[in-house]
Specification:
Blueprint lengths: L20 H4 L8 H16 L3 H12 L8 H5 L4 H10 L9 H10 L6 H18 L16 H11 L4 H15 L1
Length: about 180
């Protein structure tokens, strides 16, 4: 019997009928605000169907979208730091979520263009959220990389992120610590 999870309050309401075509239709187009919203909606759909790891990957794709910050989708649904922390915190033990700490550690350490620095620091920000929500998850000791301090992550988000992004992340981090 499939697992059905409650909707994430930090993502758009569940819309029926979403599947792989939700994102596939953007393969040959600009990936701006419409793609960002589609990633959030499809992430919610995957989550509620019990596909937690795939939902996290959808949020990864949302973070990688080329945005200015003034898109209607971003105004309505700010960057999904709170959603990322919520999903990691609420993934039941029987639902596969992988190890988000290791995922983001590897992702940040191996980031490629476009917008490498922006995406890299967003990955480190999600890594910090995963550590706050699930301190029991180990890092990858074979992946030799300097793990940044929280202040460095915030400073880099100020430099490379959207206006207000560092504050948005700090708010999500404070909420994540309260969940742990």
């Amino acid at each position: 019997m499939p697992t059905v999870l409650p909707a994430c309050p930090h993502l758009p309401p569940l819309r029926p009928g979403l599947d792989w075509r939700t994102l596939h239709r953007f393969r040959a187009t600009e990936r701006g605000g419409a793609f960002y919203l589609a990633c959030l909606e499809y992430g919610q759909s995957l989550w509620t169907r019990g596909l937690a790891a795939r939902a996290l990957l959808c949020l990864d794709r949302a973070f990688g979208t080329d945005l200015c910050g003034d898109e209607p989708a971003v105004r309505d649904w700010p960057l999904p730091y709170a959603a990322m922390a919520w999903l990691i915190a609420h993934a039941p033990a029987e639902v596969f979520v992988g190890n988000p700490r290791v995922h983001f550690q590897h992702y940040a350490g191996r980031m490629n263009p476009p917008r490498r620095e922006q995406r890299r620091w967003r990955a480190w920000a999600c890594w910090a959220l995963a550590r706050a929500v699930r301190p029991d998850l180990p890092g990858d000791p074979r992946h030799a990389i300097a793990e940044p301090a929280l202040d460095e992550i915030a400073a880099q988000l100020e430099t490379h992120g959207l206006p207000g992004e560092a504050g948005l992340w700090r708010t999500a981090l404070a909420g994540a610590r309260a969940c742990a």
